[in-house]
Target: MFS transporter
Amino acid sequence: MGATILELALIASNPSLGQFSLEFSLVTQLIISLIVEFYIGHYFTSKLGIANTTIYGFIFKLACATFLTLGFWAALLGYWHTGWSLILIAFVCDSAGTGCLKASFRPAYNALHIKMTGHGADYVKAFNHHLYIRIGTPFILLLAASLIINYASYLYAILAIMSILLFLRFVQIYISNSDLRPTKTRITTSTPLNRHTYLKHFTVAAKYPVQIIGYVAGNVFESLILMYAIGLLYRHRDLLGVAQQLSWLGSSAIAYLVFLASTVLGRLVISKFIIRNSSTTFGASCLIATTITSLLLASTSKDITYFLSLAFFCLLGVVIGTIITRLTSNEVLHNASDSDAVSFFLVSELATTLTIILITTASSFTLKPERIIEGLSYGLIVLMGAYCLAIMLIRATTETSK
Model:
């Protein structure tokens, strides 16, 4: 999370990348994701197995951080076209890594958990595990980045920050390789890759319709926060009204508080209400909360209230997105085979990308660039409504059949 926030912040606040660098990066990432994620995820899981695919996913993330570093460096030295070319290569690597990790990460660790304990992993309960690492690492990372930005030249600051991110990516590769060694499978070249094998993934939609809709709704919410909304906190950091040299630190503090509060609130919601499966009450609660925060964001002008409502929108988005994706992942992983689980995540991620592209395109044509976030929030209301409706329809169908 901390790495994602920092990468987005550096794109949003880098003056050498242009005024609408954040919007351009969002659109290009979506287009690249649409082309790359599904096919890379399918190819690697088919040929390498879910454990090896997870490790390669982190390797792609390392490559992304490397090309981002080179791209930021080139842009700051005045090589604008070279800088953006390297950043686009980084986006390709990021999409490849995301495709691998989304398709294989949870199925791989679920398989490891079954092998070690005899039963599947619980990703809702796992939300409470290793909190000191999940909370402490982003804090140290964002604090270090803010101090470096304030006390060093921008070029050297970016190089120092990205060096930290590169180190963390190496650590991820090492840990995943060590963890998943017991579940690694031999690399195969015998699996056919034709149109039928790709289309076969989509049959999972008939088996888990509510889970796919819920996962897409939560994933879209969380993705829009991590791909765009957090960056707006850095772009509009002047609204905080603090000294210029403290504005980056202030935005980092707000971004971290959003993450911290979402973690604490998410843990409270999960433990307090013991959420274990999709229910009408849960779906309706997500819809109501999304509607309130979206209308609040749309009704504020460009002042401190806008900044605060944006921060609240980010907070709620991470909470809702995290809980729904973990909840639906649990429901699928506890009932599906490994192949169906991989298909579920591949199809859900593809649907997520298509949905974000649709919402972003509609927002771009109907709203000014600086108010695109409003259109995105309205799209989220529709998604949460679809999730709530799907739960009610499935529940009604089940009761009728009984």
